[in-house]
Amino acid sequence: MDNPAILTAEVPSTADRILNAAEDIFAEKGYSATSLGDVADRVGIRSPSLYNHFKNKEALYEAVLERLLQDFSAPLVELDSGPVTNERVFRWLETIVRQHHANPNLARLLQHAALSGGPHTNELIDRLFRPMFQPDARIEGENFTLFQNTGLQPWAVMAFNNLVMSYVTMAPMYRDLLGQDPFSEVALENQLNLIKMLLRAVFDYKGEPAQAS
Amino acid sequence: MDNPAILTAEVPSTADRILNAAEDIFAEKGYSATSLGDVADRVGIRSPSLYNHFKNKEALYEAVLERLLQDFSAPLVELDSGPVTNERVFRWLETIVRQHHANPNLARLLQHAALSGGPHTNELIDRLFRPMFQPDARIEGENFTLFQNTGLQPWAVMAFNNLVMSYVTMAPMYRDLLGQDPFSEVALENQLNLIKMLLRAVFDYKGEPAQAS
DNA sequence: GGGGGCAATGTGAATAATCGCGCCTCCGAA
DNA sequence: TTCGGAGGCGCGATTATTCACATTGCCCCC
After folding, report:
1. Does the distance separating the beta carbons of B166 and A162 come in below 8 Å?
2. Is the distance from CB of B40 to CB of B46 less than 8 angstroms?
3. Does residue A198 surpass a pLDDT of 70?
């Protein structure tokens, strides 16, 4: 969909087909458990032929990451391009959710990296998460600043990241439990409704009410 | 803590030490990427010695899962032992969160299984999640039944599961971003506060207000 | 009490499969 | 004719697993 080779030719280049196959398999098995033989099999070539297009396994992994990061960091720079209002946060979150539904591979790769490490993990953290954890001076809205002062803000950032990412990485299990495709259109709408409702609760946060337990 | 060998002797048996080491490494790398040599190294023995205690790699994995499932399914059967009131859901969720903080390995193993599969994955789903997705006749509270009728209930179940599990599985990345231990006592309290606030929002749900986007 | 068996538990060596990766050949299109 | 790219071959490392063997502690019987 954002593959430049598709724009110029009907058939993607071998390098792009390798990238597509590698992205899927890296996302499923993680870096170390992915074998280049599996990647080559899916492309339809032999594994030594991969070395005509990528220096080695790590370079292939790096190329996969780079292509994903290009796509997924776009909404964040868009959000940073103006004042952080409630409404713009709503739209940003919805964009993120739709993006992860369209391509679950980044979340899966990220989850593998968080669990097992692997090359370029620190770069992943910096480019995807670091901006969200730095205190942003352009945040507006009284409720939001109140929330910020409670010290709960980073935990809210983590919470919504968890909501989005874990839905994707746990999707294979949820498929069995729901009895329907977790990436279908109706599933996406349901998840969006629930996330928006929870986000409203954060925006409407007025401090700590009486404990329930 | 629930190790029977500790009750009778000060030093755990070799089988238990193997289980402990295997649990950590399986949780970090997943089933297929875990090498028995690594497990043996951590125990301080050679890998063929593992076969004196477990039939093969899969049996060791199964034993690790079984021990974890014993611990983690306890709160769920406790919740099922009576009417599902708001307050009892609060307490159950808090217990679950504290349990995952005390031992993050189940969440990590589960995440690996969801991403990459592995032996006994279906059994994991059945024993940990299936009960939460079946409509429960003992649910009480008007808000809750209203919520149930919207069809959003399974999505709420998934959402809170995502909140708890992803916090644990993403913890290595959050450690860098927070600048503090995600499993410290204060971190636990912060996460609990935020989850309780979101759970209150679900309980207070009165239907769909005007869209924000 | 002493010794003979025996089960439990460790080890090194060996095996077959798989892995990443480099070398070299060959083919087909420009 | 040239050259990018695919494949065949194979090296060295790692994997799970098996096997023969050494050692230890314990029980039982003489």
Report:
1. yes
2. yes
3. yes
User: Does B29 sit within 8 Å of A111, measured CB to CB?
Assistant: no
Phi, psi of B42 (to 5 degrees): -65, -35
Q: Which of A109-129 are b and which e, b meaning 16 or more Cβ less than 10 Å from the residue's Cβ?
A: bbbbbbbbebbbbeebbebbb
Checking phi first, is residue A207 left (phi over 0); if not, alpha (psi -120 to 50) or beta? left
| CA atoms within a 13 Å half-sphere pointing along the CA-CB vector of A59 | 8
> Is the distance between the Cβ of A57 and the closest atom of strand D smaller than 7 Å?
no
Instruction: Tell me the two tokens of residue A97.
Output: 């959710």
DSSP E strands in A57-105: the ranges are none
Residue of A170, A195, A200, A213 to mutate for B, most B C-beta atoms under 10 A: A170
**pTM for this structure?**
0.91
Positions in chain C where some atom is under 7 Å from a protein CB = 8-14, 18-24
Is the CA virtual torsion B156, A167, B162, B21 positive or negative?
positive
Q: How confident is the model at residue A212 (pLDDT cuts 50, 70, 90)?
A: very low
pLDDT band at A142 (very low <50, low <70, confident <90, very high): low
Q: Is the CB of A56 under 7 A from strand C?
A: yes
- Whether the beta carbon of A11 falls within 7 A of nucleic chain D: the reply is no
In B, residues 132-151, which contact A (CB 8 Å cutoff)? 133, 151
A75 by Cβ neighbours in 10 Å (0-12 / 13-18 / 19+) ranks as: middle
**Residue given tokens 């959003």 in the structure block:** B152
Pairs of residues, one from chain A and one from chain B, whose beta carbons lie less than 8 Å apart: 180
From residue B153, give the alpha-carbon distance in Å to each of A3, A25, A107, A160, B139.
Answer: 38, 33, 24, 18, 12
Note whether A205 contacts B: Cβ–Cβ < 8 A: yes
DSSP A121: H
Distance from C-alpha of A68 to C-alpha of A53, rounded to nearest angstrom: 18
**Residue recorded with tokens 């008007």:** B142
Q: Is the CB of A70 under 7 A from strand C?
A: no
Mean of the per-residue pLDDT values of chain B: 88
The region that residue A44 occupies, defined by phi over 0 for left and psi between -120 and 50 for alpha, beta otherwise, is: left
